[in-house]
Amino acid sequence: MRTAMVISPHADDAAIFCGGAMARFAAEGWRVIVVRVTDDRFDSVGLSVEETVKRNSEELRKAAAVLGVSEVVDLGFETDRLADTPESAIRERIVFLFRKYKPHTVFSFDPTDIHEDNQDHVRVAQAVAEAFWVSCFDKHHPVHFAEGLEPFTPAERWFFARGSPGADYVLDITGYLPQKIGAVLAHETMMRNVLNQYRLQLRTAGRRVGLVDAGVAGGNLQPLVEMFVGGTAHAVAQAAGFPEGHFAEAYRRVRFGDLDELFTQAGEDITEGG
Ligand SMILES: [Zn+2]
After folding, report:
1. Out of 24, 133, 164, 265, which residue is the most buried by the measure of CB atoms under 10 Å away?
2. CA 126 / ligand 1 centre spacing (Å)
3. Ligand 1 centre and the CA of 10: distance in Å?
């Protein structure tokens, strides 16, 4: 069984950016692991920090269950402070998890995205990209080897980004859109805070959207989430030339780079039963 590992800076990033892929991979028999890097302690509106930590953690478990995730790993770094956290400290945890879970494919924010303003996303993207090769080294973190682990690195990295500027691969998630929407809806606390950000921005612009105000105030989130998540997935599918009625997610997929062709031609199959 192959393993896919999603490195999610915050609880909701996984469902929002690659929930369709997670549901599809799980349905196709992969073990899907979600690594949540921060504790999301500030991501709510009108709740205490303690209540926020509790709810966001519970809601991630709900979302994971909807998507067929096998395991959630919490790294517990303080949210919205990763810019002040040494990159090598985050990287070490990711190297450890690569060596422990041996993922074939890793999903993460794209470290080349210059439009990202969330420094937790930027930091995690950098740490994952660097962990990819550091994890191979037999002199990096020898304490892992004392625990029985060995040098290891994933075969593929699937990077996502807002607006997917560098995307070169589109995954059809048509049958999995309901699960993706369900998983995003599970993050009720974080979604209401997202809507509150829109509410404040709209207010500054001298506007008001009733559905957004209602969502912040505890109303039904389903119509808005269906509109946002479904609309994005539909636009990605349309841009890729998929038939009407299809939904998709876009990635920058990295395998062996320039060596892809050589390794495809010269490679021998060493998978079990291969
Ligand atoms: Zn995030």
Report:
1. 24
2. 14
3. 5
